[in-house]
Design goal:
Layout: H1 10-13, H2 30-38, E1 48-53, H3 57-65, H4 67-70, E2 74-78
Parallel strand pairs: 1-2
Protein name: Alcohol dehydrogenase
């Protein structure tokens, strides 16, 4: 996807009982999710595709801006 139009052939999907949902990030739950992440209650390792130090922030933004080319799903910045 990554900002490109996607053609969905509903005539082929309805028979397979496919459900399509969309939505935006619910920022109301972000503080709780961050607390859970820090406490080790969420395993997000399988979502992270790239890791960068804060000194590499320009490169990190470049990678995240081109997900179709870089395969970026989640980019993590660390301070250390």
């Amino acid at each position: 996807m990554h900002g490109r139009p996607a053609t969905l052939h509903l005539e082929q999907l309805w028979i397979r009982n496919v459900t399509i949902t969309t939505g935006l990030v619910d920022t109301h739950s972000t503080p709780k999710l961050l607390d859970m992440l820090v406490a080790g209650q969420l395993d997000t390792g399988h979502l992270v595709t790239h890791r960068f130090g804060l000194d590499q922030i320009v490169e990190a933004y470049d990678v995240f801006a081109r997900p179709a080319e870089t395969g970026a799903l989640k980019v993590v910045l660390t301070r250390g």
